[in-house]
Amino acid sequence: MTRRIYSTLVILAFIIIACNIPDEDIIYDYSLQDINPHSDTYGIYISPNYFVNQITIHYFGHQG
After folding, report:
1. Distance between CA atoms of residues 48 and 44, nearest Å
2. How many CA atoms lie within 13 A of 48 on its CB side?
3. pLDDT, tens digit, for every residue of 27-49?
4. Residues 6+ apart with CB under 8 A from 28
Protein backbone atom coordinates (compact mmCIF):
# COMPACT_ATOMS: atom_id res chain seq x y z
CA MET A 1 0.00 0.00 0.00
CA THR A 2 2.76 2.45 0.84
CA ARG A 3 4.45 1.83 -2.53
CA ARG A 4 1.26 2.85 -4.29
CA ILE A 5 1.10 6.06 -2.25
CA TYR A 6 4.76 6.88 -2.93
CA SER A 7 4.31 6.16 -6.63
CA THR A 8 1.26 8.40 -6.76
CA LEU A 9 3.12 11.20 -4.96
CA VAL A 10 6.09 10.93 -7.34
CA ILE A 11 3.81 11.08 -10.38
CA LEU A 12 1.88 14.00 -8.90
CA ALA A 13 5.12 15.87 -8.15
CA PHE A 14 6.33 15.28 -11.71
CA ILE A 15 3.07 16.64 -13.13
CA ILE A 16 3.24 19.74 -10.95
CA ILE A 17 6.88 20.42 -11.87
CA ALA A 18 6.31 19.74 -15.58
CA CYS A 19 3.33 22.09 -15.71
CA ASN A 20 5.07 24.94 -13.90
CA ILE A 21 4.60 28.16 -15.88
CA PRO A 22 7.59 30.51 -15.71
CA ASP A 23 7.07 33.80 -13.88
CA GLU A 24 8.72 35.83 -16.63
CA ASP A 25 8.38 35.74 -20.38
CA ILE A 26 11.31 34.11 -22.13
CA ILE A 27 12.80 36.29 -24.85
CA TYR A 28 14.77 34.64 -27.62
CA ASP A 29 17.07 37.21 -29.19
CA TYR A 30 18.44 35.90 -32.47
CA SER A 31 17.72 36.08 -36.17
CA LEU A 32 18.51 33.72 -39.02
CA GLN A 33 18.45 34.19 -42.77
CA ASP A 34 15.70 32.33 -44.61
CA ILE A 35 17.58 30.21 -47.16
CA ASN A 36 14.55 28.43 -48.61
CA PRO A 37 14.26 29.68 -52.22
CA HIS A 38 10.55 28.75 -52.29
CA SER A 39 9.70 30.87 -49.21
CA ASP A 40 8.01 34.27 -49.33
CA THR A 41 10.69 35.59 -46.97
CA TYR A 42 13.68 34.16 -48.88
CA GLY A 43 16.88 36.06 -48.13
CA ILE A 44 15.38 38.02 -45.22
CA TYR A 45 16.66 37.68 -41.66
CA ILE A 46 13.81 36.50 -39.45
CA SER A 47 13.65 36.41 -35.65
CA PRO A 48 11.10 34.71 -33.39
CA ASN A 49 9.24 38.05 -33.21
CA TYR A 50 8.12 37.40 -36.81
CA PHE A 51 5.90 34.60 -35.50
CA VAL A 52 4.13 36.45 -32.66
CA ASN A 53 1.03 34.60 -31.40
CA GLN A 54 1.93 31.48 -33.38
CA ILE A 55 3.27 28.13 -32.26
CA THR A 56 6.84 27.60 -33.46
CA ILE A 57 9.39 24.81 -33.31
CA HIS A 58 13.04 25.81 -33.16
CA TYR A 59 15.52 23.38 -34.71
CA PHE A 60 19.16 24.06 -35.29
CA GLY A 61 21.02 21.65 -37.54
CA HIS A 62 24.47 21.54 -39.01
CA GLN A 63 25.35 20.66 -42.55
CA GLY A 64 28.96 19.83 -43.04
Report:
1. 13
2. 11
3. 667 888 999 899 999 999 998 88
4. 47, 48, 58
